């Protein structure tokens, strides 16, 4: 379960205060995939970073499986897995196993469990051949598998995907889609930010649309299409953020 209430994040700028996230509230039940949609700069990554405890909210609250993201940040980190687009935070000079182990240690996975768990995942993700090789020369697809393994090493219940397929080819994007669907079938709660309406339609049960930091609409994809009398989600999105409907 993931619940965000009246969440705000302000950044100080030369010109004054920038409200990157402005009083957003939403709730995701266990086993749901919810899409977080918004144009560049809408506040998606800032929202994700606050949920993942990387960034402290200016005000409002975040609850992850009963834990508060500010007061119980270590518990929240144990309950959350994050997959960013690209190979964010993968160290080229370390082997795949060392990269995954490093992350496991940060997330308090018991030392005696780490190697066993990595071996299991190497098998599941077909990485056994290169699990002990340095990541530097890996293909993008291989690095992607390291990122996937890293995001689930601690068996998180809630998964955050921040534009996970940006810049990937069709096959690599499909690996990520299959992984997201597997997470759902395991009952994980999933928040997915994406610019691809096709991806969102394929994967999400519901969507939340944000614009300039504010939540402008939420609902099921079919519900929104019906409400705005348009069968094209992209059209509904564009109209909403340009203030053309409501
Ligand atoms: N550390 C920061 N300091 C100042 N301003 C920031 C900071 N992080 C984000 N912002 C600003 O907050 C706003 C929201 O940014 P954010 O990265 O959350 O958008 P986004 O929806 O993820 O966009 P994109 O789709 O381009 O990734 C932007 O105007 C951005 O410039």
Which descriptors would you attach to this protein?
single chain, 246 residues, alpha/beta, Rossmann fold, six-stranded mixed β-sheet, four-stranded antiparallel β-sheet, 9 helices, globular, binds adenosine-5'-triphosphate, ATP hydrolysis activity, ATP-binding cassette domain-containing protein, ABC_transporter_ATP-binding
Walkthrough of the structure:
A six-stranded mixed beta sheet has the order 6-7-8-3-9-10, with helices on both faces. The chain is 37% helix and 27% strand. It has a domain of 172 residues: P-loop containing nucleotide triphosphate hydrolases (Rossmann fold, 3-Layer(aba) Sandwich). The protein is built from nine helices and ten strands. The chain is of the alpha/beta class. A hairpin with a 2-residue loop joins strand 9 and strand 10. It is globular. Bound molecules: adenosine-5'-triphosphate. Adenosine-5'-triphosphate binds next to strand 2 and helix 1. The site of adenosine-5'-triphosphate has 11 residues, from strand 2 and helix 1. This is ATP-binding cassette domain-containing protein. Belongs to the ABC transporter superfamily. InterPro entries: AAA+_ATPase, ABC_transporter-like_ATP-bd, ABC_transporter_ATP-binding, P-loop_NTPase. Keywords: ATP-binding, Nucleotide-binding, Transport. GO terms for molecular function: ATP binding; ATP hydrolysis activity.
């Amino acid at each position: 379960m993931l619940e965000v209430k009246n969440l705000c994040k302000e950044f100080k700028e030369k010109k004054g205060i920038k409200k990157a996230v402005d009083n957003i509230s939403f709730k995701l039940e266990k086993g749901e995939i919810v899409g977080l949609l918004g144009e560049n700069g809408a506040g998606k990554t800032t929202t994700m970073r606050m949920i993942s405890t990387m960034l402290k909210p200016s005000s409002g609250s975040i609850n992850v499986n009963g834990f508060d993201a500010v007061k119980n940040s270590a518990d929240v980190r144990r309950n959350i897995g994050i997959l960013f687009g690209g190979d964010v935070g993968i160290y080229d000079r370390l082997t795949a196993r060392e990269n995954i182990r490093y992350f496991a240690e940060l997330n308090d996975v018991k030392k005696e469990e780490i190697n066993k768990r990595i071996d299991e995942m190497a098998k599941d993700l077909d990485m056994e051949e290169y699990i002990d090789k340095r990541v530097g020369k890996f293909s993008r697809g291989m690095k992607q598998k390291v990122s996937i393994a890293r995001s689930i090493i601690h068996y998180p219940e809630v998964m955050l995907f921040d534009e996970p397929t940006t810049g990937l080819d069709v096959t690599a994007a499909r690996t990520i889609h299959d992984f997201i669907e597997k997470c759902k079938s395991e009952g994980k709660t999933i928040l997915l930010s994406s610019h691809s309406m096709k991806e969102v339609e394929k994967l999400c049960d519901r969507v939340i649309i944000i614009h300039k930091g504010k939540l402008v609409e939420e609902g099921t994809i079919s519900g929104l299409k019906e409400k705005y009398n348009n069968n094209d989600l992209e059209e509904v999105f564009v109209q909403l953020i340009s203030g053309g409907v409501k």
